[in-house]
Amino acid sequence: MRHDPGYYKPDIGGKHWDSVARRYVEHDTLPQETFGVLSPRTGDNDNDRGPYVVAYTGRFYPFDPKPEDVRIADIAHGLAHSARYNGAGRRFYSTAEHSHHIAIWLLPRYGAQTALTGLLHDAPEPLSGFGDVLRPVKDSAPIIKETETNIWRKALAPAFDLPLDMPLAVHEADSRIIADEMRQNLAEVDPGYRDPLGVTLNFWSPEVAEVWFLSTFKILVEAVKAENMRAA
Predict the structure, then answer these.
(1) Full-model pTM
(2) Tens digits of per-residue pLDDT, 139-153?
(3) Could you tell me the residue ranges of all domains in the chain?
(4) CA 14 – CA 11 distance, rounded (Å)
(5) Are 209 and 80 in contact (CB under 8 A)?
């Protein structure tokens, strides 16, 4: 699939942001079970699964994650409203935009499935209850990484037919983009990050980031289907 940046531009001109996001969630041609519906998924008295996180469309149980509870709307909305680097940037920069840049960088180099994995690599964050935690803190608090890994392996990977283990290419892109992000948005630059991806941050608002994330998700899902058909 040829990389054309214009191909990823969603039709958002003159639209009300929430209605655009809901259009993707409620009226898209992709299966409804992929996008989900804007309603709770469990009853008020469903207390046997441990504590739950209140997500955009309902509840998610981070310690009992299941594929049927995964909704792309929860992921897109949560990541779009989550600021990278604990909000320490000079401008608001969301985890959704971070994920979009990684996916677009991966696509022409590693294909659609790896790009989709890159887009969703931080998806456990809004579902875990921990949110975006700085890497040094996460490394010192094993429960955070363990919970995120469990959500990925038991819920997200099966829901989107992605690998159980994060590809090395995604880890590489996720580390290298830190150099771009620090140089463009943080007061302090860690000299240990010397090999940037070369992306330019857009500093999208949460509303715009959410729409771009959903649009990129839709495109990559269809691209994965096309890849699978060619391989069959």
Answers:
(1) 0.82
(2) 999 999 999 999 999
(3) 38-231
(4) 9
(5) yes
